[in-house]
Amino acid sequence: MNAIALPIFIPFILIFVMVAVRNSRAAQLISVLGSTLLFVVSLYLFISLKDTKILTLNMGSWEAPFGISLVLDYFSGLMLVTASLIVLCLSVYTIYFMDDEHRNNMFYVFFFSLTMGVNGAFLTGDAFNLYVWFEVILISSFVLITLGNSKQQLEGGIKYLALNLIGSMFFLAGLGLLYGKTGTLNMAHLAHILRASEQPVLINTSAALFFMAFGIKAALFPLFFWLPASYHTANISVTSIFAGLLTKVGVYVLIRFFTLFFVQDQVFWLNLFLIIAGFTMVVGGMAASSHYDTRRILSYHIISQIGYMIMGLGIYTPLAIAGAIFFTIHNMIAKTNIFLVSGMINRSKGSFYLKDIGGLFKQSPILAILFILPAFALAGVPPLSGFFAKFILIKAGIEAGQYLIVAVAIATAMLTLYSMIKIWNEAFLKKAPESSEVEPYFKKPGFPELLPSVILGAASLLMGLFAATVFGYTMVAAEQLLVPTHYIESVLNGLNP
Amino acid sequence: MEIVLAILIGVLYTAGVYMLLRRSILKFIIGIIFLSNATNLLVFISSGIIAGQPAFVDGTTPSPNNLSDPLPQALVLTAIVIGFGIVVFTLALKFKFFETTGTDDLDQLQQTDN
Fold first, then answer.
1. Global ipTM
2. Which residue in B28, B44, B96 is closest to A154 by CB distance?
């Protein structure tokens, strides 16, 4: 099915259009139209999964495992739809929240190359192709994070770049070793070979290198230090894109690799995941509660939430994997949304620093509602999406007898609630401070500025209200991941190499 | 031949890690270059190295034991190009940073922590 390539192809075309278009109004219009098209296509692809469950496309008609295959299963389909929804909302948001007009077109070029990289990473069925998409994501994010050229941004950019480059090298080294052992890079073919392998311990060198690589990209516990050092420096629209998409691609690949072919020596790996998940949650949550800059609180909070996704992977039952996928989708939506709202708070009050602002509840009740939606979703208040995400994960944990990680997860939920209530109290409830360095002015956001946040907030709410439907899809995805015979067969097309 | 390359890879990794841990940003970039070349060689060596044999032979079916696998070499080409682009970007970033701050010292990068 050729349409699978469209989520990569549409942003690819848009990059060139954005290079050519000089007028920034036109660029904004094209970007909104383009991302709407992208969203519609992703939705169409997801719906067309209904019959065959897995769609594949061999690029350039080279048969798998020799050519590059694009594979769309339920997991990648769900991620694709969520990612393109976020891209759509951000393309509206950036119209109002990018700083200087003349940088706009440049921003869009890299915005869409980031989108292309993310979609490519979700769709590809080839491990080396995945590396290439990761580099596309990496280079575009380098440019985006340093777009403002301020001292802080350059400094954050260097830190971001340093650790992520090292991550990429781990990835490439792991690929080299893996190819040396198996002689293939097609993920389905790898699964076919490695699942029949009689010397599982030998695979651990590659698995460890991949784990380091994606641990850095996903910001897991001892490897996350690039994230809080850099995310808060960039423009708020850029931070929102990163928060919604980047670390989640790392999580996606971890789940994909460790369910598809690194399934040897599972006792070791799953325990490691659980330990790391616990530390990631607690450290991120505690660091978040010690800060007063909304962007820093939320950046640490990203890390804490990554722990939940890895916890699902570590428990490794169908319910837990479904929970991890549900949580990832919920988190992409809610996390992006709360960054959008913090950008609007900054726009209204002129500061991200909580001690300088206050009294927003009276000045703008609508902003308060828009904040409450993602904040309560992240904290896990029913009927929003986060409640069901945590509920599934905790239920899976109890069923599997992993009580310790469940306790940690519940304690971290308290930390999350604490940091959300802190922002709520400081920014919305308390009176505006009189002796602050920032002018105590207030600028009311207009409706078009609010629209992206309204859409994402509604998505959080709907995902909570129709949790059973979404859970049904994630459950299918989890079953496809845990029993990948169908995946392997449809990619290799009955070929038995 | 493999053993020589293996030692070379080890030396490059060692030198790369050493350079990464230096205080200067420029030396850090040199470390990145070492590491990326070491990784490229690692991928290259995974194909096995056999001198003087063509990758594809017309007409006859040669024994695979006498051929090295051409695919990792193609992969390395891609990786080299990507690595090259990234090094150029890193140098540009370093230049920009030097322009705004006038420092090459990594210990000065403390503004965005905590």
1. 0.92
2. B96
Query: For the ranges A100-114, A401-415, B96-110, which has the lowest average pLDDT?
Result: A100-114
Tens of pLDDT, residues A435-470: 655 555 666 777 888 899 999 999 999 999 999 999
pLDDT of A412 over the 70 cut:
yes
- Residue B34: inside a domain, yes or no? yes
What is the count of structural domains for chain B?
1
Please enumerate, as own/partner, the contacts of A38-41 that have beta carbons within 8 Å and a separation of 24 or more: A38/A7, A38/A10, A38/A11, A38/A84, A38/A87, A38/A88, A38/A115, A39/A81, A39/A84, A39/A85, A39/A87, A39/A88, A41/A3, A41/A6, A41/A7, A41/A10, A41/A84
Count of A-B CB contacts under 8 Å:
95
Residue window 229-248, chain A: list those with CB within 8 Å of chain B: 229-230, 232-233
Is residue B92 in a domain? yes
CB contact under 8 A, A138 and B75: no
Is A177 within 8 Å of B86 when comparing Cβ atoms?
no
CATH of the domain at B86: 1.10.287.3510
Contacts of A145 in chain B (CB under 8 A): none
In terms of residue numbers, what domain contains B43? 2-52+65-107
Any domain includes B60: no
Domain ranges of chain A: 265-465
Mean pLDDT for A379-394 is 90
